[in-house]
Structure formats: C-alpha cells, structure tokens
Design brief:
Elements lengths: L4 E6 L7 H13 L5 E6 L1 H4 L6 H18 L6 E5 L5 H10 L4 H5 L2 H8 L6 H15 L5 E3 L5 H17 L9 E3 L35 H9 L18 H14 L3 H7 L6 H27 L2 H30 L6
Parallel strand pairs: 1-2, 2-3, 4-5
Helix pairs in contact: 3-12, 4-7, 4-13, 7-8, 9-12, 10-12
Bound molecules: adenosine-5'-triphosphate (ATP) and L-tryptophanamide.
Length: 335
C-alpha cells in the first residue's frame, strides 16, 4: 500500500517555541514511520515581513538543528530549506496567475499581520499562494499544522481545485489539514487570549522557547497569567483561559488524558502548584531536545550536508511537477 504523503513547513523567523513544538513538530515526528514526509524550513515565507539578513541566516541553521533534535530523522523524512528548491518560487508565480485577489484579502493571518506592519509588502498578501504551492508540488495528502493554519489549507484546496478544473483533472491532489488532539492552539503565558507566537517573543513572559534553560522555563510558568479563583479545571470560560492553557500544555507534553491530568493536581494547594507541575513536565520534555541541539550545532558542516541531501530529494519531486504545470499552462519548455 502506498503511504500517505505529508508536507509541512515552519518559518525560521524568531524563536521556536512550545506552541510550534506541540502544535506541529511533535506530530511530524510521531508519524514519520507511516508516511512519506516532507518538512520544509520556509525561509521565503519568513521574508514576507522584514528580516535582518544576518539573523535570518543564523535562525535558519538553528531551526534545522532544532528539527533534527526534536526527532526528525533524515533517513525517514525529507528535511530541506525552501529556497534551495527553485520550483517553490516558480510554482507560486504560476498559481498567482489563477488565484483571485479577493481570496487573499479574506485571510485572517494577513489581516492580523498587516495590521502589525507599518508598510505591508506584496509578499505578505501572497504568502498563502506560496504555501499552496509548497504543499501541492509534492501532491501531499496531509498537512499537520496548528489551528491557525486551517484557513490556509482550505485556500490551498480552493486553488488546487480551480487549477484542476481549468487545466487537467486531477492534476493536484487536494490536501487535508491534520490538527493535533491537544496543543493545536497553545496560548501566550502573559495573555491566554492570544496564541503563543514568535511575533510576540519581544514581550517578556509571552512564550517558552524550546531552548530555554530549566530555570527560565520555571520562571515563565510561575508568572503565567491565571484568574483570581483557585479551581483547577478545564473550561471554555474566557475567565479560566490561563488555567485551561496550563492544563492543555500538561496534557500535550505528558500525553496523559484530561482525567489523569486533573488527578495529578487533585491535591494542589492552588495555582502555584499547578504552575510548577506544568513547568516540570515541560522541562522533562525539552531537556533532552536542548542537549541534542547543542551537539548538532557543534558540527555546522554536517548540518549543511543534511540540508543539501534534503534539497536534492525534494527537487527530484518538485522540479518535474512544476515543469508539468508549465507545460499544461501553455508555456514553451526549453528544448
Ligand atoms: P508567527 O508568529 O510569525 O506567525 P508562529 O509562531 O505562528 O509564527 P510559524 O512558523 O508560523 O510560527 O508556525 C509553525 C507551526 O507551528 C505551524 O504549524 C503553526 O500552526 C504552529 N503553531 C504556531 N503557533 C502555535 C501555537 N501557539 N499553538 C499551536 N501551534 C502553533
Ligand atoms: N504558514 C505556515 C508555514 C508554512 C507551511 C507551508 C505549513 C509554509 N508553507 C506548507 C504547512 C504547509 C505557518 O506555519 N505559519
């Protein structure tokens, strides 16, 4: 039986945080054996908002090491840097020419991010088209992401469907979004009504970085915003969003059920104990990852070799697909 094809991406901007791990990467790692996997460091998406070039280069290599440290195995998955595979940029342009502008203006991530920018770049509006190309170049069936990306995957399907209807049925496979059972939306510790996001890493106490030392992790959780009550429970009540977020994080890192999680805190003397309990569970998960990361970063040449190998494997799939796209769109192929 052929294995389902999985594609997912992550931006090398800012600091990789607990939300990225629980919402996306933990799932990528868990299902590697049963699927054909493509995991992409989407540097061309990162430059849709201004980036410092020196920092971007550093962050891209760091992210490669983080993903390997989290357990992405290059023998099981193709891990590569988006800009190493030219087909992504080409595919984006071709899809731009069949995507109505109105579809892009409806994207909530564009609305959020453009509100935060002084000057909005064309690439930021076009971001989901580049993403649609990423996914469909590999005929991915499944896209494991956090909840914030759901709308982009729906748009990918719309773009794919429109291309298929216009040119050739079924040229593109229409992908499905795969959300994790827990951790699909980890909220900021400073403000549990906002999702934990790299874009807010300048706000103290907002996020837990994957590479934070245990001391720092404990400090962040101790300062997490909760409510004035003392009841430890899962709840949709916005008042209890802070406690709910802490419990969700606990369930996601320990892989316990909600009942088991509540039982673990049955004797807690208030939110202080909850915060320390969650911090310790997070520390236990992240410590081996941080140690492995430090080892990987001590050999940058090996990291570069791994990325080159991934790009070669990705090109073998993406290049013929984009060539085929050009052909059916009526472009003359070079002889
Ligand atoms: P930005 O703030 O720039 O949008 P980000 O923190 O959302 O960055 P991305 O690189 O855009 O990070 O996302 C990588 C993956 O992590 C995506 O699958 C996304 O859905 C997931 N993700 C991001 N933040 C969270 C979160 N708070 N909870 C769960 N999943 C998340
Ligand atoms: N927009 C995504 C990153 C991304 C992606 C992809 C995710 C770019 N291309 C393809 C899944 C599939 C985000 O996480 N913010």
């Amino acid at each position: 039986m052929t294995k389902p094809i999985v594609f997912s991406g992550i931006q090398p901007s800012g600091d990789f945080h607990l939300g990225n791990y629980l919402g996306a990467v933990k799932n990528w790692v868990a299902r590697q054996d049963d699927k054909t996997n493509y995991f992409c460091i989407v540097d061309m998406h990162a430059i849709t908002v201004p980036q410092d070039p020196v920092q971007l280069r550093i962050k891209t290599r760091e992210l490669a090491a983080i993903l390997l440290a989290c357990g992405i195995d290059p023998d099981k998955s193709t891990l590569f840097i988006q800009s190493h595979v030219r087909a992504h940029a080409e595919c984006c342009w071709l899809l731009n020419c069949i995507t109505p502008l109105g579809w892009l203006h409806r994207m909530t991530q564009f609305k959020d991010k453009s509100n935060r920018q002084e000057s909005v770049l064309t690439g930021l509006l076009d971001y989901p088209v580049l993403q649609a190309g990423d996914i469909m170049l590999y005929d991915a069936n499944e896209v494991p992401v956090g909840e914030d990306q759901k709308q982009h995957i729906e748009l990918t399907r719309d773009i794919g469907q429109s291309f298929n209807a216009r040119y050739e049925e079924p040229f593109f496979t229409l992908p499905k979004v795969m959300l994790p059972e827990t951790g699909a939306r980890v909220m900021g510790l400073d403000n549990p009504t906002n999702k934990m996001s790299k874009s807010f890493s300048h706000i103290r106490g907002h996020l837990v970085k994957l590479l934070d030392e245990p001391k720092e992790i404990l400090r962040s959780f101790k300062k997490a915003q909760t409510d004035s009550g003392n009841e430890i429970m899962f709840s949709d009540d916005p008042e209890k969003a802070g406690v709910n977020n802490l419990l969700d994080i606990y369930v996601a890192v320990t892989e316990k059920s909600k009942e088991e999680a509540l039982a673990d805190f049955a004797n807690a003397r208030g939110y202080g104990d909850l915060k320390v309990g969650v911090a310790n569970a997070v520390i236990e998960t992240l410590t081996p990852i941080r140690e492995r990361y430090n080892e990987l970063m001590s050999d940058p040449a090996e990291l570069d070799r791994q990325m080159a190998r991934g790009a070669e494997q990705a090109r073998a799939v993406a290049d013929p697909k984009v060539t085929h796209m050009k052909e059916i769109m009526g472009l003359v192929l070079p002889s």
